[in-house]
Amino acid sequence: MQATITPVTIPNERRRLDASDESLKPSVLIVDDEFGPRETLKVILRPFFTIYSAGTGATALQILKEQQIDLVTLDLKLPDRQGTDLLQEIKRDQENVEVIIITGYGSLKSAMDGIRYGASGYLLKPFNVTELIALTKHCLEKKHRLDSLRDVLRTFGGLWETGSDQSAAWKNLSLLLAAKNPDLVSHSERVSFYSSLMAEHLELPAEDSEAVKVGSWLHDIGKVCIDPRILAKSAPLDVQDCELIKCHSEVGARMVQSLPFHPLIGQIIRHHHEQYDGAGYPDGLKGDDIPYFARIVSLANAFVDLTAGPQSQESMSLDDAKTYIRRQAGGLFDPTLSELFLQIVR
Protein backbone atom coordinates (compact mmCIF):
# COMPACT_ATOMS: atom_id res chain seq x y z
CA MET A 1 0.00 0.00 0.00
CA GLN A 2 1.45 3.35 -1.03
CA ALA A 3 1.91 5.96 1.71
CA THR A 4 0.13 9.26 1.06
CA ILE A 5 2.10 12.33 2.13
CA THR A 6 0.15 15.36 3.24
CA PRO A 7 2.24 18.39 2.15
CA VAL A 8 3.29 20.45 5.15
CA THR A 9 6.10 22.82 6.07
CA ILE A 10 8.19 21.69 9.02
CA PRO A 11 11.10 24.12 9.44
CA ASN A 12 11.03 23.95 13.25
CA GLU A 13 11.10 20.17 13.34
CA ARG A 14 13.90 20.20 10.77
CA ARG A 15 16.03 22.54 12.88
CA ARG A 16 15.49 20.43 15.99
CA LEU A 17 16.20 17.05 14.41
CA ASP A 18 18.79 17.85 11.76
CA ALA A 19 22.44 17.42 12.67
CA SER A 20 25.26 19.21 10.90
CA ASP A 21 27.63 16.30 11.54
CA GLU A 22 26.44 13.13 9.79
CA SER A 23 28.09 11.00 12.48
CA LEU A 24 25.83 12.55 15.13
CA LYS A 25 22.62 11.62 13.38
CA PRO A 26 20.60 8.74 14.80
CA SER A 27 20.29 5.78 12.45
CA VAL A 28 16.97 4.49 11.12
CA LEU A 29 16.28 1.18 9.38
CA ILE A 30 13.24 1.25 7.10
CA VAL A 31 11.68 -2.20 6.65
CA ASP A 32 8.98 -2.45 3.99
CA ASP A 33 8.57 -4.92 1.14
CA GLU A 34 7.20 -2.26 -1.25
CA PHE A 35 9.59 0.04 -3.07
CA GLY A 36 7.25 3.07 -3.02
CA PRO A 37 6.73 3.31 0.76
CA ARG A 38 10.43 2.65 1.38
CA GLU A 39 11.44 5.53 -0.89
CA THR A 40 8.79 7.80 0.61
CA LEU A 41 10.15 7.22 4.10
CA LYS A 42 13.71 7.73 2.88
CA VAL A 43 12.81 11.12 1.42
CA ILE A 44 11.10 12.23 4.63
CA LEU A 45 13.69 10.97 7.10
CA ARG A 46 17.02 11.34 5.26
CA PRO A 47 17.54 15.02 6.28
CA PHE A 48 17.45 14.02 9.94
CA PHE A 49 18.83 10.48 10.13
CA THR A 50 21.32 8.05 8.66
CA ILE A 51 19.08 5.77 6.62
CA TYR A 52 19.23 2.03 5.91
CA SER A 53 16.48 0.03 4.23
CA ALA A 54 15.37 -3.57 3.80
CA GLY A 55 12.61 -5.32 1.88
CA THR A 56 12.61 -8.56 3.91
CA GLY A 57 12.96 -9.60 7.50
CA ALA A 58 16.14 -11.53 6.78
CA THR A 59 17.82 -8.48 5.25
CA ALA A 60 16.69 -6.34 8.19
CA LEU A 61 18.22 -8.75 10.72
CA GLN A 62 21.48 -8.79 8.79
CA ILE A 63 21.68 -4.99 8.80
CA LEU A 64 20.93 -4.94 12.53
CA LYS A 65 23.89 -7.26 13.11
CA GLU A 66 26.25 -5.14 11.01
CA GLN A 67 25.15 -1.58 11.83
CA GLN A 68 24.35 0.43 14.94
CA ILE A 69 20.62 1.09 14.51
CA ASP A 70 18.62 3.35 16.82
CA LEU A 71 15.16 3.04 15.32
CA VAL A 72 13.31 0.68 12.96
CA THR A 73 10.19 1.57 10.98
CA LEU A 74 8.43 -1.73 10.37
CA ASP A 75 5.67 -2.81 8.01
CA LEU A 76 3.47 -5.66 9.23
CA LYS A 77 3.38 -7.40 5.84
CA LEU A 78 6.73 -8.86 4.77
CA PRO A 79 7.38 -11.60 2.20
CA ASP A 80 9.36 -13.90 4.52
CA ARG A 81 7.62 -13.39 7.90
CA GLN A 82 5.02 -11.37 9.75
CA GLY A 83 6.12 -7.98 11.00
CA THR A 84 5.20 -8.89 14.59
CA ASP A 85 7.47 -11.94 14.38
CA LEU A 86 10.35 -9.74 13.22
CA LEU A 87 9.55 -7.27 16.01
CA GLN A 88 9.90 -10.03 18.61
CA GLU A 89 13.21 -11.15 17.09
CA ILE A 90 14.54 -7.58 17.19
CA LYS A 91 13.50 -6.97 20.80
CA ARG A 92 14.84 -10.34 21.92
CA ASP A 93 18.31 -9.70 20.53
CA GLN A 94 18.52 -5.88 20.74
CA GLU A 95 16.08 -4.51 23.29
CA ASN A 96 17.57 -1.01 23.03
CA VAL A 97 16.46 -0.66 19.38
CA GLU A 98 13.15 1.21 19.18
CA VAL A 99 10.51 0.15 16.64
CA ILE A 100 7.66 2.07 15.01
CA ILE A 101 5.05 0.01 13.17
CA ILE A 102 3.89 1.73 9.99
CA THR A 103 1.17 -0.21 8.22
CA GLY A 104 -1.87 0.04 6.01
CA TYR A 105 -3.41 -3.07 7.59
CA GLY A 106 -3.82 -1.89 11.14
CA SER A 107 -6.30 -3.02 13.77
CA LEU A 108 -6.68 -2.71 17.54
CA LYS A 109 -5.28 -6.23 17.93
CA SER A 110 -2.20 -5.51 15.83
CA ALA A 111 -1.61 -2.27 17.75
CA MET A 112 -1.87 -4.10 21.09
CA ASP A 113 0.38 -6.91 19.88
CA GLY A 114 2.92 -4.34 18.74
CA ILE A 115 2.98 -2.61 22.14
CA ARG A 116 3.14 -5.95 23.99
CA TYR A 117 6.10 -7.07 21.91
CA GLY A 118 7.97 -3.82 22.43
CA ALA A 119 6.99 -1.36 19.68
CA SER A 120 7.30 2.31 20.67
CA GLY A 121 4.71 3.64 18.25
CA TYR A 122 2.07 2.74 15.72
CA LEU A 123 1.25 4.70 12.59
CA LEU A 124 -1.36 3.97 9.94
CA LYS A 125 -0.94 4.67 6.23
CA PRO A 126 -1.67 7.17 4.83
CA PHE A 127 0.21 9.48 7.19
CA ASN A 128 1.45 13.06 7.04
CA VAL A 129 5.01 14.27 7.50
CA THR A 130 4.39 16.15 10.75
CA GLU A 131 2.81 13.09 12.35
CA LEU A 132 5.72 10.85 11.34
CA ILE A 133 8.41 13.30 12.48
CA ALA A 134 6.69 13.88 15.83
CA LEU A 135 6.35 10.15 16.49
CA THR A 136 9.95 9.48 15.47
CA LYS A 137 11.20 12.24 17.77
CA HIS A 138 9.09 10.91 20.64
CA CYS A 139 10.43 7.36 20.15
CA LEU A 140 14.06 8.50 20.13
CA GLU A 141 13.48 10.51 23.31
CA LYS A 142 11.93 7.39 24.81
CA LYS A 143 15.00 5.38 23.77
CA HIS A 144 17.27 7.77 25.62
CA ARG A 145 15.02 7.58 28.69
CA LEU A 146 14.81 3.78 28.61
CA ASP A 147 18.54 3.32 28.08
CA SER A 148 19.14 5.27 31.30
CA LEU A 149 16.37 3.38 33.09
CA ARG A 150 17.71 -0.02 32.04
CA ASP A 151 21.17 0.89 33.32
CA VAL A 152 19.77 1.89 36.71
CA LEU A 153 17.51 -1.19 36.89
CA ARG A 154 20.41 -3.44 35.96
CA THR A 155 22.55 -1.93 38.71
CA PHE A 156 19.67 -2.11 41.16
CA GLY A 157 18.94 -5.73 40.30
CA GLY A 158 22.59 -6.67 40.70
CA LEU A 159 22.76 -5.07 44.14
CA TRP A 160 19.49 -6.72 45.17
CA GLU A 161 20.72 -10.11 43.97
CA THR A 162 23.96 -9.88 45.97
CA GLY A 163 22.38 -8.37 49.08
CA SER A 164 24.43 -5.18 48.77
CA ASP A 165 23.32 -1.74 49.94
CA GLN A 166 20.62 -0.55 47.51
CA SER A 167 20.00 2.95 48.89
CA ALA A 168 21.94 4.76 46.17
CA ALA A 169 20.27 2.70 43.43
CA TRP A 170 16.82 3.36 44.95
CA LYS A 171 17.57 7.09 44.97
CA ASN A 172 18.82 7.11 41.37
CA LEU A 173 15.79 5.12 40.19
CA SER A 174 13.38 7.42 42.03
CA LEU A 175 15.05 10.56 40.68
CA LEU A 176 15.10 9.21 37.13
CA LEU A 177 11.42 8.29 37.15
CA ALA A 178 10.35 11.40 39.05
CA ALA A 179 11.93 13.60 36.39
CA LYS A 180 9.76 11.94 33.75
CA ASN A 181 6.62 10.91 35.64
CA PRO A 182 6.33 12.14 39.24
CA ASP A 183 2.80 10.72 39.58
CA LEU A 184 4.13 7.25 38.80
CA VAL A 185 6.73 7.50 41.56
CA SER A 186 4.21 8.80 44.11
CA HIS A 187 1.78 6.00 43.27
CA SER A 188 4.51 3.35 43.39
CA GLU A 189 5.72 4.50 46.80
CA ARG A 190 2.20 4.24 48.25
CA VAL A 191 1.59 0.80 46.76
CA SER A 192 4.95 -0.41 48.03
CA PHE A 193 4.14 0.93 51.52
CA TYR A 194 0.87 -1.02 51.83
CA SER A 195 2.33 -4.13 50.16
CA SER A 196 5.26 -4.12 52.58
CA LEU A 197 2.86 -3.80 55.52
CA MET A 198 1.06 -6.89 54.25
CA ALA A 199 4.34 -8.78 53.92
CA GLU A 200 5.23 -7.80 57.50
CA HIS A 201 1.93 -8.99 58.94
CA LEU A 202 2.14 -12.23 56.94
CA GLU A 203 5.62 -12.74 58.45
CA LEU A 204 7.09 -13.58 55.06
CA PRO A 205 10.73 -14.65 54.86
CA ALA A 206 13.14 -11.76 54.33
CA GLU A 207 13.80 -12.63 50.68
CA ASP A 208 10.10 -12.80 49.89
CA SER A 209 9.39 -9.56 51.75
CA GLU A 210 12.08 -7.85 49.72
CA ALA A 211 10.59 -9.24 46.49
CA VAL A 212 7.19 -7.80 47.49
CA LYS A 213 8.79 -4.43 48.26
CA VAL A 214 10.68 -4.25 44.95
CA GLY A 215 7.92 -5.78 42.82
CA SER A 216 5.25 -3.46 44.22
CA TRP A 217 7.49 -0.44 43.62
CA LEU A 218 8.10 -1.53 40.03
CA HIS A 219 4.58 -2.84 39.33
CA ASP A 220 3.74 -0.02 36.88
CA ILE A 221 7.21 0.32 35.32
CA GLY A 222 5.78 -0.70 31.94
CA LYS A 223 3.90 2.61 31.79
CA VAL A 224 7.13 4.39 30.88
CA CYS A 225 6.77 2.65 27.49
CA ILE A 226 3.16 3.79 26.94
CA ASP A 227 2.58 6.94 24.91
CA PRO A 228 2.50 9.71 27.57
CA ARG A 229 -0.19 11.50 25.59
CA ILE A 230 -2.54 8.62 26.45
CA LEU A 231 -1.57 8.50 30.13
CA ALA A 232 -2.04 12.27 30.45
CA LYS A 233 -5.59 12.32 29.10
CA SER A 234 -8.09 13.61 31.64
CA ALA A 235 -11.21 12.82 29.61
CA PRO A 236 -12.62 9.26 29.64
CA LEU A 237 -10.41 7.08 27.47
CA ASP A 238 -11.73 5.32 24.40
CA VAL A 239 -11.59 1.55 24.02
CA GLN A 240 -8.31 1.57 22.09
CA ASP A 241 -6.49 3.76 24.63
CA CYS A 242 -7.75 1.60 27.50
CA GLU A 243 -6.57 -1.57 25.80
CA LEU A 244 -3.17 -0.07 25.04
CA ILE A 245 -2.71 1.00 28.67
CA LYS A 246 -3.56 -2.54 29.77
CA CYS A 247 -0.44 -3.71 27.96
CA HIS A 248 1.77 -2.03 30.59
CA SER A 249 1.84 -5.10 32.84
CA GLU A 250 3.20 -7.32 30.05
CA VAL A 251 5.63 -4.63 28.89
CA GLY A 252 6.93 -4.12 32.43
CA ALA A 253 7.43 -7.84 33.00
CA ARG A 254 9.37 -8.06 29.74
CA MET A 255 11.54 -5.12 30.80
CA VAL A 256 12.82 -6.88 33.93
CA GLN A 257 12.93 -10.37 32.42
CA SER A 258 16.55 -10.06 31.31
CA LEU A 259 17.69 -8.22 34.45
CA PRO A 260 19.07 -9.84 37.61
CA PHE A 261 15.83 -9.74 39.61
CA HIS A 262 14.11 -12.57 41.45
CA PRO A 263 11.46 -14.21 39.18
CA LEU A 264 8.78 -13.31 41.75
CA ILE A 265 9.25 -9.64 40.85
CA GLY A 266 8.40 -10.29 37.22
CA GLN A 267 5.31 -12.23 38.35
CA ILE A 268 4.13 -9.30 40.45
CA ILE A 269 4.58 -6.87 37.58
CA ARG A 270 2.80 -9.08 35.06
CA HIS A 271 -0.11 -10.22 37.22
CA HIS A 272 -1.00 -7.31 39.53
CA HIS A 273 -4.17 -6.66 37.48
CA GLU A 274 -5.46 -10.24 37.57
CA GLN A 275 -8.76 -10.67 39.45
CA TYR A 276 -9.71 -13.44 41.83
CA ASP A 277 -12.81 -14.26 39.74
CA GLY A 278 -10.71 -14.60 36.57
CA ALA A 279 -11.91 -11.40 34.88
CA GLY A 280 -8.56 -9.59 35.09
CA TYR A 281 -5.63 -9.25 32.70
CA PRO A 282 -3.33 -10.04 31.00
CA ASP A 283 -3.86 -13.82 31.38
CA GLY A 284 -7.28 -14.11 33.01
CA LEU A 285 -5.88 -16.16 35.90
CA LYS A 286 -8.34 -17.15 38.63
CA GLY A 287 -8.13 -17.75 42.37
CA ASP A 288 -5.00 -19.49 43.59
CA ASP A 289 -3.62 -19.62 40.05
CA ILE A 290 -2.74 -15.94 40.48
CA PRO A 291 0.73 -15.67 42.04
CA TYR A 292 0.36 -15.02 45.77
CA PHE A 293 2.50 -11.89 45.87
CA ALA A 294 0.63 -10.44 42.88
CA ARG A 295 -2.60 -10.83 44.86
CA ILE A 296 -1.04 -8.79 47.69
CA VAL A 297 0.05 -6.00 45.35
CA SER A 298 -3.34 -6.05 43.59
CA LEU A 299 -5.03 -5.11 46.86
CA ALA A 300 -2.54 -2.38 47.66
CA ASN A 301 -2.73 -0.99 44.14
CA ALA A 302 -6.53 -0.84 44.18
CA PHE A 303 -6.61 0.81 47.61
CA VAL A 304 -4.15 3.51 46.53
CA ASP A 305 -6.11 4.12 43.32
CA LEU A 306 -9.30 4.50 45.34
CA THR A 307 -7.90 6.82 48.01
CA ALA A 308 -5.17 8.71 46.17
CA GLY A 309 -6.01 8.42 42.49
CA PRO A 310 -4.98 10.79 39.67
CA GLN A 311 -6.01 14.43 39.97
CA SER A 312 -8.63 13.85 37.28
CA GLN A 313 -10.19 11.06 39.40
CA GLU A 314 -12.24 11.77 42.51
CA SER A 315 -10.79 9.91 45.49
CA MET A 316 -12.84 7.91 47.98
CA SER A 317 -12.73 8.34 51.72
CA LEU A 318 -10.84 5.62 53.60
CA ASP A 319 -14.11 4.17 54.92
CA ASP A 320 -15.66 4.03 51.44
CA ALA A 321 -12.51 2.42 50.02
CA LYS A 322 -12.54 -0.24 52.74
CA THR A 323 -16.22 -0.90 52.08
CA TYR A 324 -15.46 -1.34 48.38
CA ILE A 325 -12.68 -3.85 49.09
CA ARG A 326 -14.90 -5.76 51.52
CA ARG A 327 -17.63 -6.04 48.89
CA GLN A 328 -15.17 -7.14 46.20
CA ALA A 329 -13.52 -9.83 48.34
CA GLY A 330 -13.85 -13.08 46.43
CA GLY A 331 -14.55 -11.15 43.23
CA LEU A 332 -11.72 -8.79 42.46
CA PHE A 333 -9.55 -9.75 45.42
CA ASP A 334 -8.37 -12.77 47.38
CA PRO A 335 -10.91 -12.97 50.27
CA THR A 336 -8.39 -14.04 52.93
CA LEU A 337 -5.89 -11.36 51.98
CA SER A 338 -8.71 -8.80 51.78
CA GLU A 339 -9.65 -9.49 55.41
CA LEU A 340 -6.05 -9.06 56.53
CA PHE A 341 -5.63 -5.89 54.47
CA LEU A 342 -8.72 -4.32 56.04
CA GLN A 343 -7.36 -5.10 59.49
CA ILE A 344 -4.06 -3.46 58.63
CA VAL A 345 -5.52 -0.20 57.26
CA ARG A 346 -8.09 0.09 60.06
Description:
This protein is α/β, with parallel strands linked by helices and 346 residues long. It is built from 16 helices and five strands. It has a five-stranded parallel beta sheet with strand order 2-1-3-4-5, sandwiched between helices. Helix 14 runs antiparallel to helix 15.
What is the strand and helix layout of this fold?
Elements: H1 11-17, E1 27-31, H2 35-45, E2 50-54, H3 57-66, E3 71-74, H4 83-93, E4 98-103, H5 108-116, E5 121-124, H6 129-162, H7 167-180, H8 182-201, H9 206-217, H10 228-231, H11 239-246, H12 248-257, H13 263-271, H14 292-307, H15 318-328, H16 335-345
Supply database-style keywords:
346 residues; alpha/beta; five-stranded parallel sheet; 16 helices
In short:
This protein has helices spanning 11-17, 35-45, 57-66, 83-93, 108-116, 129-162, 167-180, 182-201, 206-217, 228-231, 239-246, 248-257, 263-271, 292-307, 318-328, 335-345, and strands at residues 27-31, 50-54, 71-74, 98-103, 121-124. The protein has 346 residues and is α/β, with parallel strands linked by helices.
